[in-house]
Design a protein that fits this description.
Low-confidence stretches: 301-324
Strand content: 25-35%
Radius of gyration: 24 Å
Structural class: alpha+beta
Number of strands: 12
Order of helices and strands: EHEEEHHEEHEHEEHEEEHHH
Length: about 325
């Protein structure tokens, strides 16, 4: 259901009924881009059924889905139109347009060409666990993550979220796990997979990738001893879920393994079953991952520079939305 897992903490004190959440989402329902609009975001039915609820609750777990539509005009098309307009001006007036006039023509060309532009559509699933104060998104890039956070803050009054932070940074923990001589040094339930990426912190930013490889070997340890740090490490948990952990505490390429499906009826499928399975497994993995990283860092406590910057960025987005 989710290929990526990006975890936020919902600030204490925020609560909303399911009916109120549905009403808030409906006020921000997705509408396709207008003729001269280059982007549109809004909420759609997570179950995929027309005119269905925008907020689905399965065993108390809330699921919602943000749709993002963008329209882009190739720069070559803009330049082609501007060149044609410049030739017309030169032929009719005898003068060549200057830089400022060309810039103005380019700005006017974009809304002229947008109605003819092809649109791209994508959607991002969001899971809200009110009991644990988690907000989890399937966004695959920082741009989409920002879109989701902005849309949520716009829809839900009083909602404040911050990236999950831990006492030990993922980079530090992954370095220790890769350098460990004894597999027992890796927290219980977690095992290294067969790929990782390492990058140096010097000016050269040299990097090395291992894929389908034994990453507990001396070669990886040598790179670490030379100062390279992990940016991504493949891992498994309890033989049930595989994923790539990143330095930003994001899980990529999330996949359920055979252990998850043992004893599960073969005919148990569909949206509700998938949500129950996903949220049930992740509700166990996330706390163990937090423990493996030294426990949660209380919001507002001093974290690493990178973590603080990320939280500050989203707090700034929240403030801007509240001001709007």
């Amino acid at each position: 259901m989710f290929k990526n897992v990006v975890i936020y903490k919902i600030a204490p004190g925020w609560s909303l009924s399911l009916a109120a959440a549905e009403e808030a989402l409906n006020a921000n329902r997705f509408k396709p881009c207008g003729a001269t609009q280059d982007k549109s975001t809004g909420w759609i039915e997570p179950r995929g059924e027309d005119n269905g609820p925008l907020m689905e609750s399965v065993a108390g777990q809330w699921m919602l889905k943000l749709k993002i539509q963008t329209k882009a005009v190739p720069g070559s098309e803009v330049n082609k139109l501007v060149d044609a307009q410049c030739k017309t001006i030169e032929q009719t007036t005898g003068r060549k347009p200057g830089k400022k006039e060309k810039k103005s023509l380019k700005e006017e060309a974009l809304p002229t060409l947008l109605p003819q532009a092809f649109s791209r559509e994508g959607a991002v699933m969001v899971w809200i666990d009110l009991a644990n104060h988690w907000l989890v998104t399937d966004a695959s890039s920082q741009g989409k993550i920002d879109e989701v956070v902005t849309a949520l803050v716009r829809a839900f009054d009083g909602l404040s979220v911050s990236l999950l932070q831990t006492q030990v940074t993922p980079e530090t923990a992954m370095t220790q796990w890769l350098a460990a001589e004894d597999p027992q040094d890796i927290p219980g339930g977690f095992d290294l997979g067969r790929s990782c990426e390492l990058k140096s912190s010097d000016e050269e930013k040299s990097s090395v990738k291992f894929d389908r490889h034994n990453i507990s070997n001396d070669e990886v340890k040598k790179h670490i001893s030379e100062g390279k740090l992990p940016t991504k490490v493949a891992m498994t948990w309890e033989g049930r879920i595989s994923f790539d952990m990143t330095e930003a505490l994001q899980l990529r390429k999330v996949k359920f393994l055979e252990g998850v499906f043992e004893g599960r009826p073969s005919d148990e499928s569909g949206f509700d079953a998938d949500v129950a399975l996903f949220t049930g497994e992740l509700s166990k993995l996330i706390p163990e991952m937090i423990d493996a990283l030294g426990g949660e860092l209380v919001h507002g406590a001093q974290g690493s520079e990178g973590e603080g910057a990320s939280v500050e960025k989203h707090q700034s987005a929240e403030s801007e939305m509240a001001a709007a």
